Fold:
Amino acid sequence: MGGMEAWYMDESSEDQRLPHTLSPNQPVTLAQLQQIGVYHWKLNADIYENDPELEKIREERGYSFMDIITIHPDKLPDYENKVKMFYEEHLHLDDEIRYILDGSSYFDVRDKDDRWIRMAVSKGDLITLPAGIYHRFTVDQTNYTKAMRLFVGEPVWKAYNRPADEFDIRKAYVNSLRCS
Structure:
């Protein structure tokens, strides 16, 4: 499983599209991400329309719904506001599953100690964020990502901005971290 880089973020409030690495950089491994429920696959995005590997993952995990979003100033209405909105810290009551078909961007997730981890995703990266994890998304300086959104059953796009600690799914997620 090659590819995706992740690191602990600095506290700077500078442009969200910058990498925000610490100095010196503090990398985060895929194994560390798995401990907080984040999983990653590297696939061949050039054949996404009939990729047997993607089909297998979708079947095994029940990802029945799929659509494609292009995040770019020319393609997404109200682009700047949407990018700000995606960057608000939030959680969902379902897993977030994203497959990057083109371009690159960042997903940020909170670790057990509430520190931000930034994941740099690019073409071919499929990631799943567990229901209940606090996270956010931003484009990088290229301002371009094309992503497949996958879902178990009917899609529910509702985001609950932090604080959202009262949800059972959040409590279950926090408990799962205590056990690991």
User: Anything to note?
Assistant: The mean pLDDT is 96. Helices lie at 30-35, 52-61, 79-86, 168-179. The first strand starts at residue 5 and ends at 8. The radius of gyration is 16 Å.
